Amino acid sequence: MATERQERTIQEVKDSDPVCDGQAGLKFVHVGADQAVAYITRLRDVQGYTHLVFFTAIDYIEDSIFRLTYMVHNYASRQDLGVQVDIPRQGATMESIHHLWPHAATYQRELKEMFGIDFPGSPGVDDSFILEGWTGIPPMRREFDTKLYSEQTYFPRPGRVTHDTAAYMKEKLYPSEAETW
Amino acid sequence: MVETVKYDPRSKFPPVDANSGKSVYNLLSGKYMKVWQGPQHPGITGNMSLELTVCGDEIIDCKTHVGYLHRGFEKLMERRRYIQCFPLVCRICVPEPDFNEYLFAEGTEELAGIEIPEKARWYRALTLEMARLASFLMWIGGQAAAFGMGTIGQWTVTMRDYVLDLFEELSGGRIYHMYIIPGGVRADLPAGFALRVEQTLAQIWKVLDDVELALMYNAVFKKRAMGLGVITPSIVDEYGITGPNARGSGIQRDIRKDNPYLVYDQLEFSIVTETGGDAYARTWVRLRETRQSIDLIRQMLEIMPTSGPFFQKLPNVLHWKIPGGQTYKKAECTRGEYGFFMVSDGTELPRRIYVRGPSYTHAVTLMEKLAVNVNIADTAGLMVSLHTYPPEIER
Amino acid sequence: MSLKDIIAPFSVWKRVFEKPYTNKKPIDTRPGAPRYRGFHVNDLDTCIGCGTCEEICQNVAIDMVPVRETRHGDSGLRPKMDYGRCCWCALCVDICPSGSLGMSNEYLWVDGDPEVFRFIPGHDEKSWNDSELGYRRAEGYDLLEGSRVPMPMLSVEESQKSFVEMVQGYSKEQAKAEADRCIACGICVATCPAHMQVPEYIKAIRDDDMVEGLRIVYQANPLPASCGRVCSHACEYVCAMKHKGEAISIRWLKRYIVDQIYLGEYSKILHECEPDNGKKVAIIGSGPGGLSAAYYLRLLGYAVTIYDANEKAGGMLRYGIPEYRLPYDQVEKDIEFIASLGVEFRQNARIGVDVDFLDIYGHNDAVFFSTGLSDPFGLDIAGEDLPGVVSGLDLLADVTHGKTPDIGSSVVVVGGGNVAMDAARTSRRYGAEVTILYRRREADMPADSEEIHEARGEGCEIVVQAIPLRIEKGTDTRLMLYWGKAEMVSDGPGKRPRPVLIEGSEEVIACDTVIPAIGQAADLTFLPQDIASRLVGKRGYVEVDEFHRTPVAKIYAGGDIANPKRDAISAIANGHSAAKGIDIYLGNFQD
Predict the structure, then answer these.
(1) Which of B377, C154, C415, C567 gives a 20 to 30 Å CA spacing to C344?
(2) Interface of A with C in 111-170 (CB under 8 A)
(3) Predicted ipTM of the assembly
């Protein structure tokens, strides 16, 4: 997915009313970051995508981008449309859509906290949402290593030892045998 | 049905800012006070807390605080193989975990291009309806108890326990069933299961009659629930409201009808709506949907296939690589639209699994809006009437 | 508000008379449902300690700890559960390839000490250990695939007409599907005489990375094209998946890797030799043992010369295995790569006749010999020197040399090993009617079961519990073979029953050729008497230590003469160990 990233201009997507294919009733469309909010506004006000289902991000750390995904739904045509916007990871910022849907502010607050994506002007975007008192890097970023974090933060239960099957059998059955080197 | 609308003329509200729509008040004036409610369950809503600013006993501002149940499932799934996510997802929503199992399985199957057997589709639908039934029964208890009628809660929570007995028999677990697995389901129905389901359903049906008498035709409940937390149809889309919360305001929407999944296109049912938009109307919607679930379970047990496989062999799950792609799967749970957005990058581990829980909007943005004007004593009732489960907010 | 709203709630007062729902603990106990996922149970005798439960557990709740004795096919480890972490999902039960792990329906257990909630199911005494109830993997639901991807093969009708290779090899899709079945537990590694890293090269197939696959294979086996076809695959007998049905087709997956890469590509993929270190090693015998030693010694920078009595290198791989099982070009592929590294081959060089052993011994820093078992056992009955009696090995060698064997139209093969099957099936391909006589029962036959199955499929008649008595000249046919029936007599518990001739039972087969194939012995006459007497120990084996050093300085030995397993892969492993031993002995070893 990460490699085939085509961006369409707002004109291109505007001209073709996004019709979702198949029974799934689901389609994804990529737009440029500067045109996304205008496009989503049009989707909401003109094309009947009145329901913001969710708004989240995917971290493509290897490409240094966040892929924002706005999922909107059209109740009349019963279709879901995922509007995807790639923004650079470095200094990630995006226009807010809280004026379109008030609850978008909550999503944006979470994205700020979990991914470090800023939405200037979004109400309460800098307030902590879930992680009160968190000082580390935004934990949903892929460079945050949960295993390392838990090893540094918690103590393993004492007395736990395990054995790798193949290594243990070597130790028991052919410990000094001269085999592969 | 709406007899009184609860706009109490007693309070002298602080001025409302035209831009933000929020009250402007000065805490130091001594007229206002902050009250912290939670994070103990207010009713049966799960652990979250409300920071209330009150004037007398009326709420003029509400700020929600979540994070007491954050376990980082979405993050944890990034470093687990698909099969290892299976025991995790059910924990995102305690009272009806099956929606997580179902949507995760369905999404995985779609990304991997796996068709499940017909019987598994029926079993999944059966499990989902049983989960809806259990969740509603628990909710009735919460709604009644929030207004001081704990006895009703005892009846329905017992009934829920009988449904959990059925789940235990079917899947081996009472709360986390872990029954719907990618590829189908984990086991066939036990012998005589349909019979025991019917016995339980009949018992529940009778209890629901009593609940209606004791709750819906109860002057106390009516007095308190009517006019509480009114959702006008105009804000339904604006606030992303789904499920019974929207249907209580006369919005005819149900994913089971609008985007039928599994076998719902083969079942007879209609969308339950009420027009009041308040807590009372929502209670009616849910009570009638509880009966609808019973009816659907009966229909399914009648016509579902009894032979054939219930599981489609998967590639070796220990190193199952799923082709790159993304999908969004949704289903109608008791609280509204439950969804899984899944992205695969072609490796053994999922790239991103995002869980869309209906409480995300209901318990935060909507609650903050509806709490204004409400009497402190009614916050628990209001909260429960939105039917929220915090784990799906925090995931 | 209506009057009903005041009165209706009171109607439910009737519930006062109903029985309470609650259980009266501890008077009423409520057992878990028959499928309840409670505390684990484990049948320790069935469990093989493969660790797949630990592998799938996303909670890291399982440790593999030593409980039983480690044997081939059983690591001796058993799962120990930490119920502080277990989430009762039962995926460990679902994935368990031996089916030993289950869950009881017991869920009530209260204790103040958290440590007691960490135990080894089945080993530690628990009241539910014998519980029949509780979660088990349901019929019709399985996370693993028990059946093998079928190997495309020539039909037996086709195969008996020619020497075309029967096993046609997996396609990419088939190989990947078969490789996908592997659970990578690694139990096979200990049993493979060469300890090949089987799970790793199978993973390379899944990843479609043949280059990596070849690299892994060559780390422990420089004859993979041959081994991928005729290896005795001890690994497959201990494969964890065998407990679910069929073992992973390890041998043919190895063959798949090798088949995907041209010989010309090898040098770009595999290790280069170290610079010459100026030391010389002589190797006697170019069978698998000799070739393996040569390859690994050459990699270390030794100048290696192989002396071999036959026209071409390969030993039994070439002269003892018919072409329909192992085509010569595949033996060639393995040998040519070894030759391309600079190993010198001296063919047609019989020690003691063409070359003097002491000469070799004197001019080299070390000598490794793996001359194999080339001296067939006789039947020890009257008439076995009549024309028309030819040993299995000689027949197979003749065919390799391109001679059409003079076997006539009917053949009796005596023996039940792989050589017997090879001789019988080769005779079939020359159009003879074939009867196989074997002294014991079919279950006792040392040949691979698939060989027996295929021999029968190709039309060889197998007569068991038959003891040859004497051979006479025939009238219509060249020979008459007289044989008697045997009955199996128990030699006490734990011992193999012994065939005993039933007196008076005598039958006769008219045939043109009798092929004894009842085993072979080492021929060490090429060695000077004083050395040979110091080398040979009990039961005719050459005595060696773990580095395959013999009691005589500088002399190393391996292969069939030095190990009782007597198969190609053991010989390869011997060659490898000897190479390391020689390297250590010559002081060149760097860890």
Answers:
(1) C567
(2) 157, 159-166, 168-170
(3) 0.84
